[in-house]
Amino acid sequence: MNKPETVNLYEGSGKTLRERDIELPLFTSDDYMTDPRGYQPSEGLKDAVNVALKLGQPLLLTGDPGSGKTQLAFALAHELNLAPLVFYTKSTSVASELFYRYDALRHFQDVQLKRPERPLDDYIEYRALGTAIQRAMNRSDANCPAQFRSLPPQRAVVLIDEIDKAPRDLPNDVLNELEEMAFEVRENGKVFRASKAYWPILVLTSNQEKDLPEAFRRRCVFYHIPFPKDRLDQIVRGRLRLPADYPAERLRKALDLFIEIRSMPLEKRPSTAELLAWIRVLDSLGIELNGKPADLPERQQMLLATSYAVLAKGVEDMKQLRATLPSLAAHA
């Protein structure tokens, strides 16, 4: 199953690809990595999702980066035939931005430059949760936006990603809005309220960089996604769409080494996302993990060390991984 080694596009020799008679390849699409049909949740995660749906409460997910928190929202929207709407939290995010953004600067410029007067609504952009609430409004509500009145009420899955990045005030400031699924646009005084029957389905993720307020967590269904050690074979085969004849022993040895690496005292242990990328690198470099890494031929050890750039995210972690390969010491 040895594959020819990949040609290095960058040699550091000063010679161009044209001089080397090599064409720069296009990046291949890896849409399958985010295909919601390939998402494989644990039984515990499926139970947590169903509890949140039953109670109509937000689902708060924690877990290592790359554990599949974000992809759960897209997989859920896919299976429920609903549109996913996403809000990516920033360190500067404020509560109102979950619902809408008022472009005060553009409004001010138009006034100063004496441009033709425009409706205030032209300066308001509705964001993920605000749009979801508007879609779910009773069509008889006077504030229901015109573009939705001719359509039946619709539910949506709303992902609020990495909410722990936001200032602590943000979760506290949206408690009432989340309980009522309603919000007010202060600039025009309009109140938008979702019909209970079509309340948006909220999925919130956190990397636990900071604690969320107790009052906020109390209003959520909580689930921590653990590292799926016992399901790695299934996840890798599903997410990478490995062919049926992909050697089981080849994958098993890669997974065994990955688990061994995770057991090392690293500053940042690699997660499932890094595993998927690493398997792709191993295949592209033609690395055969026959036996222990220290017993591999020198060239294979050198290639394996190259692949560790996918797993190690710091200088000390890389030193630990390279220290397991004796051939590197000879070239240090």
Question: Which descriptors would you attach to this protein?
Answer:
332 residues; 2 domains; 5-stranded parallel β-sheet; two-stranded antiparallel sheet
Domains counted in the coordinates: how many? 2
Kindly report the name of the CATH homologous superfamily of the largest domain. Answer: P-loop containing nucleotide triphosphate hydrolases
Largest sheet: 5 strands, parallel
The CATH topology of the largest domain corresponds to Rossmann fold
State the CATH class of the largest domain: Alpha Beta
Description:
The structure is a single chain. This protein is of the alpha/beta class. A five-stranded parallel beta sheet has the order 2-5-8-1-9, sandwiched between helices. The chain has two domains: 34-225, Rossmann fold (3-Layer(aba) Sandwich), CATH 3.40.50; 228-330. The protein has helices at 43-55, 69-79, 104-112, 128-135, 146-149, 169-173, 175-180, 214-217, 232-240, 248-262, 272-285, 298-307, 315-322, 326-330, and strands spanning 59-63, 83-88, 100-102, 124-126, 156-161, 182-185, 190-193, 201-206, 221-225. It starts with 42 loop residues before the first helix and ends with a helix. The relative contact order is 0.14. It contains 14 helices and nine strands.
